[in-house]
Amino acid sequence: MTTRLDDLPLRDDLRGMKPYGAPQAALPVALNVNENTHPVPDDVAGDILDAVARALRDVNRYPDREFTALREAFADYLGEGLTREQIWAGNGSNEVLQHLLQAFAGPGRTAFSFDPTYSMYPLLTRGTGARWVSGVRSHDYTVSPASAAEQISEVRPDVTFLCAPNNPTGTPMSLDVIEAAYDATEGIVIVDEAYQEFAPHDAPSAVSLLPGRERLVVSRTMSKAFAFAGARVGYLAADPALIDALRLVRLPYHLSALTQAAATAALGHADTMLGMVDEIVSQRDRISATVEALGYQAHESWTNFVLFGGVADPAATWQALYDRGVLIRDIGIPHHLRVTAGTADETTAFLDALASIGSGS
Ligand SMILES: *Cc1c(COP(=O)(O)O)cnc(C)c1O
Question: Which BP terms from GO are recorded (predicted)?
């Protein structure tokens, strides 16, 4: 007889939970998890390889626990006068978010966001033993400053997530919503800017709100704009005291010497690494225009993906695309599907496949 999860002395609060499970299928066109589908350029890859090779010679020793060079590189990249004391990093921004929840959520505490949003927030929250509460958005997936403040005042969360722009809807969030949310709570406010580089160039980052707001955190990732998802590097900016709180919960030496070397080298080529962002944004806008012409409704997106509605049977459309070699995402919003903007060729493959299976209802 095989052992089932329920046979084990699992924590009661984990029973019945489902793990994160975006399908990983080897399809020719994979546009399902918002990766940057452009490979790392050869000259940058060469530099990263040299840096990793140098780090390998010292891999008998534990790495710099404070990943000093990498924090300095992130501070430079973000600008706004940040220094390395205000930077933290981890193996993906998911780990960085987990550190925040381990320090500021946990048993007896509450974390909150506005649904629909990134599916990892409740999973990471419950993993620390905290309670998850979700609030609501308007029909166009925006949240007004007044509504944000009202909902947060009512729930009184210890940790509030603001995904800006939002995954899986693509919706922008203006700084006045973030300010209103911050003023409505005494808890931590995390602005997840995983997609900020895909926003219009003049759209301000919440990093500009950090001065004087010691409970505000802005998290970023190298997984999307930087084409670095496989390396697992995420980071955040916040008050130095808040960073000290994260040192209480991280594992010693959590960022390997190889990861630190690779990420620092890649950041040295930020301009090249980000060179594809404008091209991806133009493919995103092409997706929005074309799915509209096919009879679907594209939601406004400041990210590298498009959520579109008017899909009569999302599971059937998802399968029909799959059968044509194109993998996108059914994120469980009725009559909607989400697709990542790929290269021009990948985007064409998706749009042609979608056109071939009939129009929206
Ligand atoms: C993709 C994504 C992340 C990034 O996760 P990593 O662990 O850095 O790969 C974080 N937040 C949101 C909203 C995302 O969509």
Answer: L-histidine biosynthetic process
